[in-house]
Structure formats: C-alpha cells, structure tokens
Amino acid sequence: MRSHYCGDLRSEHIGEDVTLCGWVHRRRDHGGVIFLDLRDREGITQVVFDPDREESFNLADSVRNEYVVEVRGTVRGRPEGTINKEMGTGEIEVLGKELVILNKSETPPFQLDEHQQVGEDVRLRHRYIDLRRPEIQRKLRFRSKITHNIRNYLEDNGFLDIETPILTRATPEGARDYLVPSRTHEGSFFALPQSPQLFKQLLMVSGFDRYYQIAKCFRDEDLRADRQPEFTQIDIETSFMDEEGIMGLTEGMIRRLFIELLDVDLGDFPRMPYSEAMHRYGSDKPDLRIPLELVDVADLLQDIEFKVFAGPAKDPKGRVAALKVPGGAELTRKIIDEYTSFVGIYGAKGLAWIKVNELEKGAEGLQSPIVKFLGEDVAMKVMQRLEAKNGDIVFFGADKATVVNEALGALRIKVGEDMNLIEREWAPLWVVDFPMFEENSDGSMTALHHPFTSPSCSPEELIAEPEGKLSRAYDMVLNGTELGGGSIRIHDQTMQKAVFKVLGISDEEADEKFGFLLNALKHGAPPHGGLAFGLDRLVMLMTGSTSIREVIAFPKTQSAACLLTDAPGEVSAAQLRELNIKLRKTP
Hints:
Elements: E1 17-30, E2 33-40, E3 43-49, H1 54-62, E4 68-77, E5 92-103, H2 120-125, H3 127-130, H4 134-156, E6 160-161, E7 179-181, E8 189-191, H5 197-205, E9 210-218, E10 230-239, H6 243-262, E11 271-273, H7 274-281, E12 294-296, H8 298-301, H9 307-314, E13 318-325, H10 333-344, E14 352-356, E15 366-367, H11 371-374, H12 376-386, E16 393-400, H13 401-418, E17 428-432, E18 437-439, E19 445-447, H14 459-464, E20 473-478, E21 481-488, H15 493-503, H16 507-521, E22 528-534, H17 535-542, H18 573-578
C-alpha cells in the first residue's frame, strides 16, 4: 500500500511521488491550507492539502486525530523559514494529491502529547493508544535491537537457542509459584517457571554444551518499580567453563551491546567481594557512581553510656556505621526528618546526625542532639576517622547489621541523587565471593542464591563448618542495579548431598522436590555454570527509563493486574468443576 515510511523521507526524495500510510497525529488549518502530521512507527511527515484539489482538501478537512489514512502526493522542500531542525523529516513536506480514509477513530481517551497529565491506570487500560506514543515505540524498538544483538553474540560464540517448558512442577526458588490446575490429573498442579534453572542444567547433562534462551519467567511476589509478575530473562548455561570464562564471555556481551547501540565503552568491569560491598556500601549491588561510603565506628562507641550506640556496638550481630555527606550541613531539619522517615522503611528506629560547622572548635563546633552523649573525645575521634570537614553532615546507623546496611545503603543512594553527587554516567561492577548460606532467626541455614550453587570448598569442609563458607557465585551490577547473576553449579552427588544436609533437607524431601535433577547427576553430569540477565532491567537502564513498565509492551500494574484485559478474572462454575476446584468465599 505504501512506498515509504513516514519517518524515512528526506531532502533526497524531493520531486518523488510517494504513498504514505499512518495515523493523523495532528491536524491544523492555516488560512485555508490544511496540514496533516502523518505518523507511523518510523516518525512523522507533514502533508499539505491545498484547496486547488477540492475533493482531497474537503476530505482532509474532515479527518481528526488518530484517523488511519493513505496519502498519495509529491515530496517537496519546505518554504524558507519553516524548516524544523528538530524533526528528521523537518526539511521536506508532502503535497497531498489523494487522500483515502482507511478507518475513523473515536476521540481517544487522551491525546498522545498529553500523556503526562493522565494517570497510569488510564494509559494501561488503553495501552494500545499509549503504545502509539513515539517515545514508547522508540523504547520497544530499542529492546528489539538489544535482543537481536545478544542473539547474534551468543550464536557467534556457539550457543544454541533451546526452549524449556512453561508448564512444569513447583520447586522452591525463593518466591511463590503461579500454579496451574491440571484437568487430567485430579488434585495436581503445574507451576509456571520462576526460571529455567533445572532444565538448563539438564541440557548440560544432555551434552548440548552451550545453551541460551530469552525466556519468560513468573514469580508471584510483591511488586516494585523494577519487578513484574512475568518478566523476561536472558538465560545462559555452559559446560566445561569456570567462573572466569563465564564472566569474561558475558562481560564481553554487555560491553559490545553498549558500544554498538549506545556508542559507550564501559571498559573492564572491576570486581569486588561481597563482604567489601556490604562493608563500604551496605549493598550487594552498590552504585559506584556515588562517592559516599559507610565507615564502621563501633569500636569507638562501645564504652559510652549512650545505649543506642553502645548496644549494637557490643553485639556480634550488630553494626554502628557512619555516612559522611560532604556539604550536607546545609540540609534543613525538614529534609533530615524526611530522611529519618525514609530509613524507617528499612527498619531503622531513627537517624542520628551531626553537622560539622566549625571543627577547629572541637565539640562546640559540632551541631547535634547526640554530641553531649558521645563526649568530646569520642566525637572528635569519629570525626577524625571520617576525615570530616566543615560543612559536612554525618548520619549514623546503629542496629542489627542487616538493618544498618539496608537503611544506610538506601540513604546513601537517596542523598547522592538528591544532592547531585553522581560522578559518571555508567559504573559496571562484578560482585563475587558471596556467602554460601545465610542464617535464619531460628539458627537454620538458607542458600543465599539457590541450593544448586557450588561452594568454593570441599563437601567435608562444608559440613564441618558451613558458616562463612563462600560460593562460586557472581553478580553483574550496573549503576546500582543487578543486571544478572549466576554461579558454577553443583555437578557432583556428594557435594549436592552435603549442601542439602546443611540446609536440613532430607533425602526423601530432596528426592520429592528435585528427584529428576538428582537422578541426572548420577549419569555423567559435566562441570557447568551459567548466568541469567534481567532483560527488562537492562532495557530500562539503557533507555533511561524509571520503571520496567515503560519498556514492556503490556505490563501489569503494581497489584499484578492487567487493566487492558481485566485479568485476572473470574471463570465459570463449569470450568471450576472440570478442574475439581471449589472456591471458598472470604467472610
């Protein structure tokens, strides 16, 4: 039907007869001449209708925004003074000769250039309109370029694109499963996969050597800006390659992606042990663009009478840390109170602070309600350790180490953004040497990643002293966002049994939950490992978006609902009977 896309026309097309198809983005009547801005996925072209051609002029006069039309005309240069440098097609226009209305449109629920004044619920309910916005179309087209680039890279490196099942069985992977009742197996349920983890390991046992898949995954969990109940994962697994090889391969993939699509060279990715990341930044995905760091001060505060600090300082599981913010003394009490409420989200009971006004005056030059509880000697030692200067503010966290890390780690990011302390555009990082286990409140152990991650010690050493043992896991972080994580997997039955023993998983429970994988390990499983990237987060970062909902064609809401299709929805009583399900009404 068309000869060119609207956005493809340039000055070299002047004099050509063209046929364009698209949506009327805007209609303007300027002194008897009608201008239609015609839009398709490639951009917008201005079409001019003169009254000399009465039939097409009258038809152009009748069209409205979002009508679908076909235009035949001749490309010409715009008159001097009307060139639009902001548009790719800004040097030309099309003199319309024929106009066909392919479909009319009712008045849309919002104008495309007024989307910011419309609530997200309205835009998601009419997502097909929202998706017409050039901004969203650019992002989704960029997403397509990312997946195309990644597929080419992996296939150039010998990886095979292999699909794994969507209907599978429930396995404990950290979040709730989405369950699907089976009609043919009464009382039994499928689970939608939280990841292809077990199947990709089985593919390694099968000898496929290098696998990848751009896979849909599902997790029934509380949502936030960078999470969705269904999300897309770039899943990678390979045999006979250690962590150095896997990290080098995938780092090369991301570096090439940024060079080819953004013309950005991320350089070599630095590496940081998990313990250092938590100690300095309070997070296992630190944003290295922000120069602020946490500093331990517990040893200076153990013997003071101020129990808010002294208690956690003496507790083996506690932490007292300080966060120095250069120039932060200018913060108002209102802002400090807002930061106090902010850290409360992460379990902090409060936020102590000291403003450094005149350090040369000793304690008298420090402004804070807590200085009198510290005493001059301790207060000045804290300032010395922090290398504080006049005009700084120091925030303190004192609680269980997990609370302090989460609260001050989050505050570090917020203050850094609020005070424009970000020093560079991109900051990649590998976080390595993760603990194998983390201890629950009842003293039991949980795998920090998953129970198939290989420890960096022998089975005997693991059973003898599981606390403090490290795993062969690694996470790629970019600008404080975890792009992907992976590990070397357990391929040896003895090691797998040792891990299950530490986790308190009996042979019977292990066989029930993972029997098919454990059986496979008995039949010549090769050493293998892999990594999975969150495609949605990657696209979000590369397009400068604030939420993954902006880079997914049909996202769910914060409450995991689809407003466009009204899903989830009720089903008929007949369907429930077929599945042998009876609903219990909530009182």
